[in-house]
Amino acid sequence: MGKLAPGVTIHGHDIGHWLDRQRQPTTWRGLSTRQRERLTELGVRSERPRSPVRMRGWRRHHHRSGPGSLWN
């Protein structure tokens, strides 16, 4: 199945948005086994969960301490 962007509608239904939602890991896990199988047969796969952004150095320290720590 090709890429359907949000906003692509069929009979008034936003199929692109629906498809993006089905690919989200939390939604994918909530589908029944048969639903996942049928989507997989159509070439739809779950997205990989996004890993948290890793911050380094002073950004990580100040992020944890809050913005007020920049002036202390």
Structure keywords:
two-stranded antiparallel ribbon; mainly alpha; 72 residues; 2 strands; 6% strand
Main sheet characteristics: 2 strands, antiparallel
Derived from helix and strand composition plus strand pairing, the structural class reads: mainly alpha
Radius of gyration: 20 Å
Helix content: 40-55%
By DSSP, the count of extended strands is 2
SSE topology sketch:
Elements (H helix, E strand, L loop, with lengths): L8 E2 L2 E2 H9 L1 H6 L2 H9 L15 H9 L7
Antiparallel strand pairs: 1-2
How do you describe this structure in short?
With 72 residues, the protein is mainly alpha-helical. It is 46% helix and 6% strand. It has a two-stranded antiparallel ribbon with strand order 1-2.
